[in-house]
Write a structure and sequence with these properties.
It is built from 2 helices and 32 strands. The chain is mostly beta strands. It comes from Pseudomonas spirodelae.
Length: 448
């Protein structure tokens, strides 16, 4: 019996050495989770039970469990390196075979798909053709590396303050080249369908108390002239802008005849402060043209663009533009990627725009100990683990995502080296048990 007991002890100590050695070997493996050998004693039993005072029959390896405690977060210089701080696993796809990992070595392949260092596709919520994130639609994440197409301006939002203490200009009529014919001015870049930038300029002329004339030019030309050719003149689009006693916009109307006294205006535009500038003919300077301008072959946004000045004021303070934004942009090249802690992937372009490329998801299991390790720091689902629950990082009990970082192995080398010594001593002690049993057996054999 003692031979079997000693032999089982040797086997157990060998298993312990193997598990400990594997932990030590993977102390530098990102996302690795250390294992622990778990043993149980053995008792011989009969039909009626083990008896009143049973003797042990050795030891067996009960299980090799993995400890999924958090590893240290180590920051790197790669924006696509990802670390999970908390619960969860990355879901990767190898030609339809799903596996789960904590190792966040990710990059892009030649088609822009985000893959790990074995070429497996990282999965998450994808976007549609319009760049809208499709919540719940899981697929292979891909970064669009092509140039971003330009977008013509469709809206401008602006807020400003006109100085109520200013007097009307003494020089008339309005001339954009003569600053003495207007009180204040401001400019904004807008874009045509080819991404060419054009300068929209507003000139403000005070007519009377609480009453201003706003003149608008694009590249020094009239924005609303519908002629096929570029007009030679610089007649602006004119608007009458009125404020109430509290300094808020009260009325807005387009001036149709500036020569009349007072100027003739069209119907009141509602809501006051918001209007539409119709299609205009994008042009570019041309010294060979009689007018000095030629059409550039692009178009403005069909239907023009809206101009929203609501919230602008007339107070007793200097003229200032406190906010301005427009939604057009020129073409842009991919400049970089950012991934936030919820897994949303943003692409930044050289035109100042950003675009959502997808969202990384994490998977979790009711019993992570039931996952089956398959190597390459990856696990696969098993019957014991249960079905994966997939959600964005930070949802429920899932951890957050840290971009530009990797999770180190959770192996503590000092502990493993001590375990190594203990396993070695156990092996030696069980070998001594066999040696002692052998000596006793030899004594019996040598009896005369």
């Amino acid at each position: 019996m003692s031979f079997n007991i000693g032999l089982s002890g040797l086997r157990a100590a060998t298993s312990d050495l193997n598990v400990t050695g594997n932990n030590i070997a993977n102390a530098g493996t990102a996302g690795f989770k250390q294992s622990r050998a778990e043993f149980a004693d053995v008792y011989a039993s009969s039909v009626l039970g083990t008896g009143k005072n049973p003797q042990g029959s050795g030891v067996l390896l009960g299980d090799v469990s993995q400890l999924f405690n958090q590893g240290n977060i180590n920051y790197t210089q790669n924006a696509l390196d990802l670390a999970i701080n908390g619960n969860g696993f990355f879901q990767v796809n190898n030609n339809g075979a799903l596996s789960y990992t904590r190792a966040g070595y990710f990059g892009t392949d030649r088609e822009g798909f985000i893959v790990d260092n074995f070429g497996y596709n990282l999965q998450g919520y994808t976007t549609d053709a319009n760049g809208v994130l499709q919540q719940g639609v899981v697929g292979n994440l891909q970064v669009q590396t092509a140039s971003q197409e330009p977008k013509a301006t469709t809206s401008i939002s602006q807020g400003f303050n006109l100085n109520s203490t200013l007097a009307s200009p003494t020089n008339t009529p309005f001339d954009p080249g003569d600053p003495t014919t207007y009180n204040s001015s401001t400019s904004t870049n807008i874009y045509d369908t080819q991404g060419n930038a054009h300068v929209l300029t507003q000139y403000f002329v005070k007519d009377a108390s609480n009453q201003w004339q706003m003149n608008i030019l694009i590249d020094g030309r009239s924005p609303s002239n519908p002629a096929a050719a570029v007009p030679a003149g610089t007649e602006p689009d004119r608007y009458q802008l009125n404020f109430d006693a509290a300094g808020q916009i009260s009325a807005l109307a387009q001036i149709t005849d500036i020569t009349a006294v007072p100027p003739t205006t069209g119907p009141a535009i509602t809501p006051a402060g918001q209007f539409t500038i119709g299609t205009w003919n994008p042009a570019a300077p041309d010294t060979g043209s009689p007018t000095g301008w030629s059409l550039n072959g692009a178009q403005s946004n069909p239907g023009g663009f809206t101009f929203d000045m609501r919230g602008s004021t007339q107070f007793s303070s200097a003229f200032a533009v406190n906010r301005v934004s427009q939604d057009g942009y020129t073409t842009g090249e991919l400049a970089g990627l950012e991934i936030d802690e919820t897994g949303v992937i943003f692409a930044r372009y050289t035109n100042g725009q950003s675009k959502v490329q997808g969202q990384v998801i994490l998977a979790n299991f009711a019993n992570v100990q039931g996952l089956t390790p398959v190597g390459k720091t990856q696990w696969v689902q098993s019957f014991e683990s249960g079905e994966p629950v997939r959600n964005p990082p930070g949802s429920g009990t899932l951890g957050s995502l840290q971009a530009g970082a990797l999770e180190d192995s959770n192996v503590e080398l000092s502990d493993q080296l001590v375990n190594l010594i203990v396993a070695q001593r156990n092996y030696q002690a069980n070998a001594k048990t066999i040696e002692t049993e052998s000596a006793i057996t030899q004594t019996i054999i040598n009896l005369r």
